[in-house]
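Notes continue from the previous slide.

Worked example: a multi-chain complex. Inputs as given:
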Amino acid sequence: MENQAADLIVKMNVAMWDGQNKKFAELIEKLTEEQLLNETAPNRNTGIYLLGHIVAVSDDLFRLFDLGEKMFPDYLEIFIKSPDKSNKTFPSIEELKSAYYTVTKKLANQFEKYSTQDWLSKHEAVSEEDFAKEPTRNKLNVLISRTVHLANHLGQMAYLNN
Amino acid sequence: MENQAADLIVKMNVAMWDGQNKKFAELIEKLTEEQLLNETAPNRNTGIYLLGHIVAVSDDLFRLFDLGEKMFPDYLEIFIKSPDKSNKTFPSIEELKSAYYTVTKKLANQFEKYSTQDWLSKHEAVSEEDFAKEPTRNKLNVLISRTVHLANHLGQMAYLNN
């Protein structure tokens, strides 16, 4: 066992993140522009909003993992701080899809280089002091939480598909 | 690091499973019977079907983890092998909620006793031979996958809430 066990579990968690992103990519490729503009259910978030929301949440990982600046800083206001139908102008679906691939690919490149120790190091939203008390507040736990967040919205976006 | 790292990551994954179940329990308590009988979106699964589906999928873990017999074996046919609106008779919402709590609690009691080594041992649906080649086919990976599955349907069931 020893560290081998930890390496194995990290690999499983990163594979689940990659797997949910693969499903997301397949879904946004399968859906037409018209479908993505629709609401996922009556009076619920549209596909385009959820697409932008997922990009914005993933893009925030660069800051949270101290990997550099956000690639699409404007998305925070439009897709996280504001609800859908806020009358804010959305980027086009082509732009959003391209942003999704850019962010996901750049994150994947960084994650490939992470050791288990990197994954278990603290993220930027927790102080050294709190992290000493709660070592679960690490980067891997953020990734696990984002995987579940993505799965949550994937279930909703699946409703756009006829 | 050593095994401590693996123990920590197991704890994070089990906490995420518990957390999604807590959200699920909160949602089914908040929703009225009438809301649970509704479709989550037009022509999509009803709340009651998804509730039964989640119970059936969790109940299947007893078999997969060699923890004994299914508690609600009939649910397999109704909520996994058959789609919603199959004309099969569903148990009442009260029965399904009670079944959900019974299964989830019994699983939690078993999971409390699991060591990291138990979590990383093979599940019942993989052969010794295949497991030797693919050590990620372990119990923890099943739990991670079931957590994401639950999150997926939670996103849909949230649409029942006004």
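Summary box: The interface with chain A takes residues 1-3, 5-6, 8-13, 15-16, 20, 40-42, 44, 116-117, 120, 135-136, 140-141, 144-145, 147-149, 151-156, 159 of chain B (CB under 8 Å). Residues 19-158 of chain B form a domain with the Four Helix Bundle (Hemerythrin (Met), subunit A) fold (CATH 1.20.120.450).
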